[in-house]
Amino acid sequence: MVTMTKMTTVQQLNSALGASSDKPLLLFKHSTRCPISSRAHQEMETYLQGTPDENIEYGIIYVVEDRPVSNEAADRLQVKHESPQAILIKDGEAVWHTSHSNITAHALHDHLT
Predict the structure, then answer these.
(1) C-alpha–C-alpha distance, residues 40 and 67, integer Å
(2) What is the architecture of the domain spanning 5-112?
(3) How far apart are CA 72 and CA 87, in angstroms?
(4) Beta-carbon count within 10 A of 101 CB
């Protein structure tokens, strides 16, 4: 089963962004204080438990608990911070992103496979 790797340090984020040259990375920015984010997290889990693209790495940033990592992701990727938010990264650059109620298992499947 595919799982999301928790990104807790800027160094870990930087390594994952660098590795996106070999394997794309989908980052999910999640707020544990937001009901919309909770629904989006459930949609991510539904996608991952279905038939996810196994040629993609999946990471999760808890935006409240790991704010420096979340801020660094927004700065490095030049994607305005939102939460919840899903960002697909290839070669260290954001190539697709969406947020809030647009994060559904169906949308993820359509954009990632």
Answers:
(1) 19
(2) 3-Layer(aba) Sandwich (3.40)
(3) 13
(4) 12
